[in-house]
């Protein structure tokens, strides 16, 4: 009786050896039809699952973990969904973990992903204070950082929108539309938000305005504190909100306080979440290219898994100004 | 030398045996401080990890899988986030899987969750056409269905908003505000959407209107097909959209077509997504109690894991009418 190998089985089934491995290990993606065909051929040939096929099990699980700080944030949800979709076309399943911007949770989820033997981890954003330290004791798991500055750029691939350029474009546009005294509005500061603030500052500099924190930066807390800021700084004529959530909160406050947008105060956001096109007036904002970010992350992950070393690479994805109704 | 048990270690560390087990197996949630303490005590006592502690590893992984059809849907994202939060307080990590309403994906993810040895699975909504068949070969994994009618109610716990009552309340309110000729607007039909349509029909019946599909139900496709429907049925004075996404699409079309909301046409949605409070006019809608749904799911899951049989139970969670500006 011929001794069949996994390659023979794959040939007889007209599928790849990876697919045969997935069926044997009941892991990853394959159709019921493929599954049945492979199992039939295995039975007909009397193929014994050898160590080679088994060893595939311990090495590769066809699963990728994603750490996301807040799945309720529409920008993150969109990005995660696009990554998942792309990974699935490459036969990988995605484990999504919501870390709540909580360091303890992040550690617990990293430990879990390690235990679940994922083939790679994609880390999206997260807390600014804590650098991403990843120490795997089980096997070396490659990881990709999106919008999260790693402690050591040499160990990973870093992918991010060009937040700096996007913020620069947004603020330049406000000046172009007559702004004389723009304010950047923030809440929590992450590494990507920091870049957006830097882009804002650069635009001020280019327009011969000296950045003064008390005058040009507002940490948004409530409608009343916002009203106080406007009273104290009556020349404020434009706001660059570092994300669309903040921008929409500002639109609500401005409406309540009786300000006309964009006639009295112009507003620009960042992210282009679906609601940006729904609010009245519709929000002018900076669109991130989530499809491109997702594609870059998945391509880099596949390279990392296949040991095509890209470590140390950084990808800056261009953004796009979307002009709507909150600017003149 | 005294032979220490896992109980002794737990006592010495002033933590539960479950925590000691988690540290030993490097699974689930614990602080670095706890980890260090447990490892220190193990070293000091010379405790040998016995079969008892090891067996915990094969039986329990402190992970729960969630299948969600579309993480970009704000209602689902909110629900998943709340479940994750509650599970984490109970020391469980959550694996979120986005199934894209795709049967093949759903199967692949169920297989993955089985391979990852999750302790339970929470299935949220999904395709209507395919009943949820779950056959685990590895171990019997308990599962809970939210908004997804199982093929066999005896094998699971079924949790859902009272979609029927919510739709009845919404439509009754339209009648109360003068509607004479309401239309239910749908896109895809899932089991929960079917209940909402049934509630709408019941309200018509209670108001002596005979439901005629061509007159009282619209499958929304585009602005032009919507415009045609209104031309053909000029007495249409109110729309019950089976979800807020559809409601907001209708608001956009009505604005483009020059209709006044609510003066000429009233609109009610369902779900109360964050954008419902942002659109102009603000959307009257039915609020689902996501916190209560999440709590019920997590409690049921803990019972199922602890073999406190609740199989066959059904929980219907009440909804709430939120009156805003799209109704008179």
From TrEMBL, chains A, B:
Residues of the HTH lacI-type domain: 4-58
PROSITE patterns the record matches: HTH_LACI_2
Keywords (A to Z) from UniProt: DNA-binding, Repressor, Transcription, Transcription regulation
Pfam families listed in its UniProt record: LacI, Peripla_BP_1
GO molecular function, one term: DNA-binding transcription factor activity
Highest taxon listed in the record's lineage: Bacteria
Protein name: Transcriptional regulator, LacI family
């Amino acid at each position: 009786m011929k001794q069949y190998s996994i390659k023979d089985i794959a040939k007889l089934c007209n599928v790849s050896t990876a697919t045969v491995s997935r069926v044997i290990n009941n892991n990853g993606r394959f159709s019921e039809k493929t599954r049945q065909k492979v199992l039939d051929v295995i039975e007909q040939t009397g193929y014994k699952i050898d160590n080679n096929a088994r060893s595939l099990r311990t090495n590769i699980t066809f699963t990728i973990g994603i750490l996301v700080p807040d799945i309720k944030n529409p920008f993150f949800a969109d990005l995660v969904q696009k990554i998942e979709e792309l990974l699935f076309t490459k036969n990988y399943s995605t484990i999504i973990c919501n870390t709540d911007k909580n360091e303890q949770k992040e550690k617990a989820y990293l430990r879990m992903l390690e235990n679940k033997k994922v083939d790679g981890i994609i880390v999206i954003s997260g807390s600014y204070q804590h650098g991403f330290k990843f120490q795997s004791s089980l096997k070396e798991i490659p990881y990709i950082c999106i919008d999260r500055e790693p402690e050591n750029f040499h160990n990973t691939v870093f992918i991010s929108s060009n937040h700096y350029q996007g913020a620069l474009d947004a603020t330049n546009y406000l000046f172009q539309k007559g702004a004389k005294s723009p304010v950047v509005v923030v809440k929590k500061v992450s590494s990507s938000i920091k870049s957006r603030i830097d882009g804002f500052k650069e635009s001020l500099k280019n327009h011969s305005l000296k950045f003064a924190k008390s005058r040009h930066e507002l940490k948004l807390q409530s409608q009343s504190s916002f009203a106080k800021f406007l009273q104290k700084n009556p020349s404020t004529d434009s706001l660059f909100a570092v994300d669309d959530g903040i921008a929409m909160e500002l639109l609500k406050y401005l409406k309540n306080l009786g300000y006309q947008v964009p006639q009295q105060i112009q507003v620009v956001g960042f992210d282009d979440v679906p609601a940006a096109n729904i609010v009245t007036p519709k929000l002018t904002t900076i669109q991130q290219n989530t499809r491109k970010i997702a594609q870059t992350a998945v391509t880099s992950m596949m390279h990392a898994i296949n040991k095509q070393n890209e470590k140390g690479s950084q990808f800056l994805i261009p953004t796009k100004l979307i002009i709507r109704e909150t600017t003149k």
